[in-house]
């Protein structure tokens, strides 16, 4: 009687472990799919892939401009802010080009090097832009990214999705997939040993 209870409990445990392993594999596959349709396209679309050294030529704050939304229409998402323009000397080619914070900055407003968030306070935005301009004037040389193919003449300061960030994004689903497969493998080994022992 006790043996039957132990066998039943073992089967229940194996079933739960198998479900856990299958669930982990399924979740990891969904995470792979989500990363594949969100992060990977932005990474492959970016042409600013080569790092070089930029030297500041000038950093000016112009009058307030109206920031359009991603569609380019002026609606409730548009807001005025001081326009910071930073021009740098690209060491790789010796050209004078405009610097943008990220790839998204160029898409949101190609006139300005920095685009603040809509939710920020106008006073804080003005102070932040002035601080950024003073930092560029203080630190003349810094690393930046440019397009080696020459499709984009501008440069960016920071990549939204660098290779390390992409690898880190794939790390967690890979660990989950490996753990799920390991659990399934161990359950199958346990079942095989149990069947072998019963046969003997």
UniProtKB/TrEMBL annotation:
The keyword Membrane applies. The chain crosses the membrane at residues 20-43, 166-187. Keywords: Glycoprotein, Ion channel, Ion transport, Membrane, Transmembrane, Transmembrane helix, Transport. It is a multi-pass membrane protein. One of its GO terms (cellular component) is voltage-gated potassium channel complex. One of its GO terms (biological process) is detection of calcium ion. Belongs to the KCNMB (TC 8.A.14.1) family. KCNMB1 subfamily. PANTHER family: CALCIUM-ACTIVATED POTASSIUM CHANNEL SUBUNIT BETA, CALCIUM-ACTIVATED POTASSIUM CHANNEL SUBUNIT BETA-1. This is KCMB1 protein.
